[in-house]
Structures are given as structure tokens and as C-alpha cells.
Amino acid sequence: MRKADTCYSNIIMFLTNTRRVIRAGFISFWRNRVISLASVLIMTVTLFVIGFVIFLGALFQSSLEQIRGKVDVNVYFVTDAPEEDIFVLRDSLSELPEVASVSYTSREEALANFRERHKDDYLTIQALDELDDNPLGASVGIKAKETAQYESIAKFLEEQSALAKGKYSIIDKINYEQNKVAINRLTKILAGAEKIGFAVTVFLVLISIIITFNTIRLAIYTSRDEIAVMRLVGAGNKYIQGPFVVEGIMYGLFSAAITLILFYPITLWLGDVTDNFFGGINLFEYYVSNFTQILLIITLSGVVLGTISSMLAVRKYLRV
Amino acid sequence: MVNFEKEDAMIYFDKVSKKYNDNTMALDQVSFSVAPGEFVSIVGHSGAGKTTLVKMLLAEERPTEGAVFFESVDIHTLNKRSVTDLRRRIGIVFQDFRLLPNKTAYENIAFAMEAAGRTDAEIASDVPQVLELVDLGEKVWNFPHQLSGGERQRVAIARAIINQPDLLIADEPTGNLDPINTFEIIQILQKINDMGTTVVLTTHNKGVIDSLEKRVITMEGGKIIRDDEKGRYVL
């Protein structure tokens, strides 16, 4: 019975202390509102950086997709290649693990495309009309999953072509060799850009975290005498630390709210610009459709940053 | 010389020396004891070692040699938690008040009770009583910067005694006060001592010592040079 009583009163005490700590944190946040405001603003900048990193990542990703989508390898077939043979090659290509998609353009389609492209070029069309037969061969366009994989796809095609040489090759030419330099360079640029982007991201996030940490440390530095007094009055370390941590969490929540609200008009404004410039992605739509995820990342970053900064900063003045 | 056995004493300094890094001797082989319920004044010039002695009692400083006992326990062998418990049994008043600037007078006092884990009901009933004892009047909801020096020291004393400590240490409590406030603060300390709390007062105010007619320990250069029952300020 006794034991149950002490256990019960311990729980009551814990709840009372928790309530007091939270209350003290709120009161202190309000009474030190100038310092709180400064901390919230600085942390907002940090969360902004984190948010922009998310957006830039999305823009970068979609731009890369776009560029990657423009790279392909075309296989042109001789004009009298039987369609069944082309289909066999097409099917074996699409079975390759590196290949994302294969598109077939028949001779008739190729001609129609050609006519469409040159519809203002009267001379060319006239010359074409002079011919009895369709001069264009069918072709297969191949898209790889990664730009680096075109090399091996090209090799596969050459082997196919070489194998068939003995009797009769249906492949007229592969434009990989022409594109090779461009593709290689693009592969390198993409890899480099990804690395640099990552490094810049880490750098920016790190700097803003350090600045936030320092701001909170300065805010708590002004309370160091208070902490000393609390210790002398006999307050336990957790009881002293608690309100500061609550304040840190509040900085995080307020900053996250400000950041998320400000992102709304900003992405709305930037949406059209990015849509036109980068193509494919509208920042505003991205923000709205990924809102839950961004909200979680921003809020958690703020709360974790506030909590850890406060805890470390107070701990410095708690050493006996 | 007043002498007690270690066992009955509340405070017992056993040949305590403190040497700081720059080789200054703040305390030099200091031994004395204080019985429960005593009112002891420690006097001496600045740098005589009074503040070091107080810090020793609060386990803020460690002795280079010797040991400090509080109710027969060597306080420098205590762990962090026990030091916190010890501090809850000792009330402290400083010359510079050391109130929490962002809390009202009432909250400053209540904080000491909260820190000691008292219930809301206890806080609601005890704080007004203590405020009456130190006679703060209507200013309980003011912040420290809205109070005069004398009023701040009253709040500090109220905070120091709110948890009914066994020992009250007043380190130069009147150093920043005018004569009238000084007199009133000393009267409050005497009232607290009459109610049974042991009081250790450090001061260099001659008038205070001479009017008290209580035990006086005189220090100079880190040593105790006099220890008189019903002493006077002789330096």
C-alpha cells in the first residue's frame, strides 16, 4: 500500500513538474519576446534554406529528367529491311535491362514526319515528289535508363549488326557514334552537377544550423546568471533545462509556421517562372501536392534544431 | 574560543585550506563549528576569505586541504543529486540579491518551492505568509527591476527561507543598502533566527555587528584571528 502511494505521488509530481516546465517555457518565451523574435527569425532563415534545398532538388531532378529524355540512340534500317526482322530486334532491345523504352518509326511515318518538317521547304518537297519510292528507312529510337548505359546498348547493336553481316544486315547506321561525345560529356556534367549540388546543399544547411545554434546559445548566454541562481536555490538540472528546451521547441514551431506560410506566395510567384524556364515542374503545384511531406520535414527540422541547441547551450552552464 | 564536538555541530570546518591557481591562500587551516540555532557573524576586510568560506559551504568550491561537514556529512563527497538536496536545506541571501529578473517577486519565491517539488496548494498557502514576514506589501507582482534595493533583498530573504531551511547564509546582505534598510534586514534575520533557523552572516558593517551582540568570527588573510561569544567588530 505504502509503495503504491509513493508511486502515485511520484506520478503526480512528474505531471506537476511537466506542467510547470511547459508553463515556465511559455512565460519566458513571451517575457523575452525580443530575444524570442530574433531567434525565431534566424531559425526561419535556416528553415527557408532547408525548404529551398527541397525545391531546388525537385527542380534539378525534373530538369535532369528532361535532359535525359532528350538523349537517345536511333537505329536506322535499310529501306528494304523486312518489318518482322526489325520487330525481332526491337523486342530483344526492350528486353535489355538498361533500356527504358523503345519506339518504332515505320517507313511511312518517317516520310510523313519528313514532309511535316519540311512543309515550308518547297524545293525539298518537290524533289521528294519526283522520287518513285519512299527513300526513308524505318528506325528504332532507344532510351536508356541512365545516360552512361548508351555505350553498352550501342555495343549490343553493333554485335547484332556484325552477327548478321554474314548473310545480310538490316541495320543501315546507328547514330551513337555521332552522339557519343555529346552523351559522354552530358553524363559527366550531370554527375558533376549532382556532386556540386549535394556539396552546396550540405554546406548551406550546415552554416544555417551553426548560425541558429549560435543565436540560441547567445539567447541562453544572457540567462547564465539566472541558471546559476536556479542551481543555488536548489533546482535540479532537468527542472532548469526544461523551460529552455520548451522555448527551443517553440522557436522551431513558430519558425516552421512562418516558413510554410511564406512559401505559399513565394512558390505561387515562382511557379510560372520555373514552369517556363526549367519546364516540366511548377513549384507551386509541387509545394501543394507535397505539402504534408514538406510540412513534416520543416517542422521536424525546426523542433529538433531548437531542442538540441537549447539543451547543449544550457548544459554548458549546468556543470557543477 | 567557542568549541563544539563534530557530532553536535551543524557546520564543522576541519582545517580547511583553499589555494587558488595563482597561489593566493584564500583560506589557511580554518577550523570552527556552528551549533544548530546559532547566529554567527563572520567579519573581515575584503579578501579575508569570507566569500570563499560561504562558497565552500554550498559545495561551490572544493577545499585544497581539510573537509567541511554539514550535519556530520562531508559535503565534498556528495554526488550531484545530493548537492542539490543539500542546497535545498540551505537558504542563501547575497549582496547583489540574485533574483530571477524575468519573474515577479511572487514567482521568484514560488520558484524555490517548485524546485523543491512542493505542491501547488503548499505554494499558495506558504508564499503569502513569508511575504508577510518580510513585509513586502503590495509589490509582490512587481518584477525585480521595479523594486528598490531594500525590497529586492526582502524578496531574496523570503525566497531563502520559504523551504524552511535548517541554515540561512547571508553573504553581505546589507552591502548595497542604506542604513534604514540595513537595520530592517538585520531585524528580519534576527526574527528568522528566533524562529529556530541557524544564521550565518558575513558583513563588514561595524554598526550591524555591534548592535547584534551575537557570536563574531573575525578573519584576516584567510585565517580566523578572533572568535568571540557576544563579539564586537574589532579590526
Can you walk me through this structure?
The complex is a heterodimer of chains A (320) and B (235). With 320 residues, chain A is an alpha+beta fold. Chain A contains 11 helices and 4 strands. Chain A has helices spanning 2-31, 33-70, 83-94, 107-117, 122-130, 150-165, 176-221, 224-233, 237-277, 283-289, 291-318, and strands at 73-77, 99-105, 139-144, 171-174. Chain A has a 4-stranded antiparallel β-sheet with strand order 2-3-1-4. Chain A starts with a helix and ends with a helix. The model of chain A has no long low-confidence stretch (mean pLDDT 83). Chain B has 235 residues and is α/β, with parallel strands linked by helices. Chain B has one domain (36-59, 87-228): P-loop containing nucleotide triphosphate hydrolases (Rossmann fold), CATH 3.40.50. Chain B is 34% helix and 26% strand. In chain B, strand 1 and strand 2 (25-34) form a beta hairpin. In chain B, helix 3 (105-115) runs parallel beside helix 5 and helix 4 (120-134) packs across helix 5 (149-161).
Name some characteristics of this structure.
heterodimer; A: 320 residues; Alpha-Beta Plaits; 2 domains; four-stranded antiparallel sheet; B: 235 residues; alpha/beta; Rossmann fold; six-stranded mixed sheet; 26% strand
Q: What is the number of E strands of chain B?
A: 10
CA-atom Rg of chain A in angstroms: 33 Å
H and E string of chain A = HHEHEHHEHEHHHHH
- Uncertain runs of chain A are none
* Main β-sheet, spatial strand arrangement of chain B: 6-7-8-3-9-10
What portion of residues of chain A belong to β-strands? 5-15%
Number of alpha- plus pi-helical segments of chain A: 11
List the domain count of chain A as a whole number. 2
**Helicity of chain A, in percent?**
over 70%
If classified by CATH, what would the architecture of chain B be?
3-Layer(aba) Sandwich
C-alpha end-to-end distance of chain B: 17 Å
Radius of gyration of chain B using CA atoms only: 17 Å
Question: What does the average pLDDT of chain A come to?
Answer: 83
